[in-house]
Amino acid sequence: MSSSHGSQVQNRGVRALSLVLLFTLIYLTADFALNKFAFSDGWTVLWPLNGVTIALLLMWPRLDWPAILVGVTLGTGIGECLDHNPVTLELWLRTFSLIEVLICAWLLPPFTSLDDWLRRTYLFPRFFAALLLGPGISGVMAAILFHHVHHEPWLMAFNDWATADALGIAAIMPLALCARSTEMRTLFKGHALPRTIGILVTAFTGIVLIFTISRYPLLFLLYPILLYVDSMLAFAGSAIAMPVVCLLAVYFTIHGHGPFAFWPQGLLVSRNVALQIYLGFHMVALFPASVLFMERRRMSEDLRDANAQLTMLASVDGLTGIANRRSLDERFSMEWKRAIRVRTSLALLMIDLDHFKQYNDMYGHHAGDQCLRTIAGVLSRHLRRPQDFVARFGGEEFAILLPHTDLDGARHLAETIRIAVLEAAVDHDGSSWGCVTVSVGCAAILPAHGDDRFRLLQTADAALYLAKKAGRNCIEISEPVDEPAQ
């Protein structure tokens, strides 16, 4: 037992060390790349890494959280120190960032699948609370530090940290979660790929125009574009579009393009804050709209499934599980028209259980129901072609519709079925054969324009009457009688 426990502890230690090294390397590379990317002071508008970290915590077991957070803290800390930030200052900032992601991760539900996550109770209030509390609490701490170390104004210091982190979390975390989802993979698989690329390229073209053209007021176009993406590609599509919107907006604004680039001096709100408010509004407004779209799609799918199920129930006999009389009538009409169109024979078998009233009297109705299910199974198993159609006609009577079948073919199948029922050996002491048997009436017709399909039904029914009259457990055929000229 002690050896096994020691082995488990050792395995957990190896796993934890592997996670620390893995995330240290990943976040060191990411932080270094972000700092070298030509965004100038753009990361004070939007900082993306904390959103990725929160998504990772939601996807991984909580036992792995300490190792992940150590790796994330080491990676980003080393990356910032390489960017010439003081080590002592970075220790404080990494602590604040750690507090932020932990608050957000504790407030949000764990992620198993996108559909399940979006269905969680009070998801939007929890998401909104995480955006306020996580960056808000850590932002207050950072503001105090920056005020004392760099003598920055309180509000500016708070905004550079809290608002940028909140915006980054709102933009990047949904994308990081969706990257693991089947919904995201479906968008880029097979025939869906060209459609997805076409929609995203169209949307991104519009977004580039919005943030590069300052001569015309195009900012109002962003929300319709985001709704368009969401309506076409669902939540996973929005999760792709929103980070691209933020990155393009920050990039073009910082480089002097678009409606936010030349911001008037002396306004209460700075350019960066105005851009943050603009992007934040669209994120907050898009999230509930996206969930509503998702619910509408889910309700439509549920309605289609319910209608399909109702249609199936309406066409299936509840006792035997095969088609019912209504379904037979619809199929009969369709096959009759097809037989007229292609000039081919249509055959019908009418099948009746012999002495079934006596069977119910002797064995009870429960046994009678089981007997009907057994015979229905025998009939279904002996249909060799997909177009052949068996249905319960009513009571103890069944019908088999045989497209492209002449009278000889119908008679051959009828005899096969009669023998199969006999070999099923369903006990029936009220029958002279000692088991359940069937009588079968066969008819076939080459229909023509103007013929009534019920003529075939009447002919097969007449043949069944002859089989009953001949002593049962047999088949009879009947030729259709030409109708007198009117």
In short:
The chain has 486 residues and is of the alpha+beta class. The protein folds into three domains: 1-180; 206-315, no CATH class; 325-477, Reverse transcriptase/Diguanylate cyclase domain (Alpha-Beta Plaits, 2-Layer Sandwich).
List the helices and strands and how they pair.
Elements: H1 2-36, H2 49-59, H3 65-82, H4 87-107, H5 114-118, H6 123-150, H7 154-178, H8 182-187, H9 192-212, H10 222-254, H11 271-315, H12 325-342, E1 346-353, H13 356-363, H14 365-381, E2 389-394, E3 397-403, H15 407-424, E4 438-445, H16 454-469, E5 475-477
Parallel strand pairs: 4-5
Antiparallel strand pairs: 1-3, 1-4, 2-3
Helix pairs in contact: 1-3, 2-4, 2-7, 3-4, 4-6, 6-7, 7-10, 7-11, 9-10, 10-11, 13-14, 14-15
